[in-house]
Amino acid sequence: MMNRLLLALALAGVSSPAWAQNKPAAAPAKPAAPAPAAPAAAPAANPKPAAPVAGVAADVNGDKIPLNDLNRMVDTIKSSDPGLQTDSPTAQKALADIKVQMLDQLISTRLLAQEAKRLKIVTATATVDDAVGKLKTNFKSDAEFQKWLQADGKTLADVRRAIADELSIRELSTRLTADITISADDVAKYYRDNPEVFKIPETVSASHIMLALNPNASQADKDAVTKRAQNLLTQAKKKGADFAALAKANSDDTTSKDNGGDMGTFPRGEMIEAIETACFAAKAGDIVGPITTEFGLHIVRINAKKPESTIALKDIQNDPQLKALLLKEKVQDRLDKRIAELRDGAKIQKYV
Fold first, then answer.
1. What's the domain count of the chain?
2. What is the pLDDT of residue 95?
3. Is residue 315 in some structural domain?
């Protein structure tokens, strides 16, 4: 079932708050998505839970975290990953680890909600009303909405509280991190500390002529295709030969023949191994082959090669994506520290 409460938060303009987001690992200057890390400010160790309390996952300073909330988070992750939907020991261990992480995230959420309340950060009733109204538009009737609440084990008051808490936490996060900026020194330090991030790999640009050949073809057919490939290789190597025209006239690769056999530009690890090996071993302008792959025989022209290089610091000093990434990391560090402080002063009891 779609988690409509999360939808309500989104409709209210609330993206995943910083405290609940994963801290990014090192990412490229033209950043790829950061690699996931552990939930923010999770404790170093998880003590053995107390005796179970019906329907309760944990108690945080007297506030109970419903077991349903935890199970719903775990089920959402499980439903999106077929590898977790088995009874294998590996899958069960992964689910157990996820459950621990999600409970720690719920505890962090509750601690921040309590801190927001202590600081008298209150979400306007009208804002909550608006979010609830948008949530209800996803149901055909009020009866269907009530049925969803009942199935989810929640009341309207629970939903309103969750929305209000989320918005209050977002405001708290903003206040805690409003003074954080990214300086030129921050960028330079990241650049020095993460040299691999800024390396541009060696690449090859190539075109090919493919002659299809079934691996189970008769020897006579194999000999005929091989002879044709050798003839094309000879033609392609002649002075003044038009490789693109030869590809258009002879290649069986329908995805590239109309573009003169252009295979684009690629680094190591992205092309069929036999073709990649030949291309990176050759020089720009070379024509190599025939190369045998599962698809047939290939005559390949190396159009250009670029050696590995490194992006200069001056070229990324003001890169907005990199600065956003570093800002996110600084914000997360600040919030992690505050959550850790709140944990140190909190009375937390886990029941699962």
1. 2
2. 92
3. no
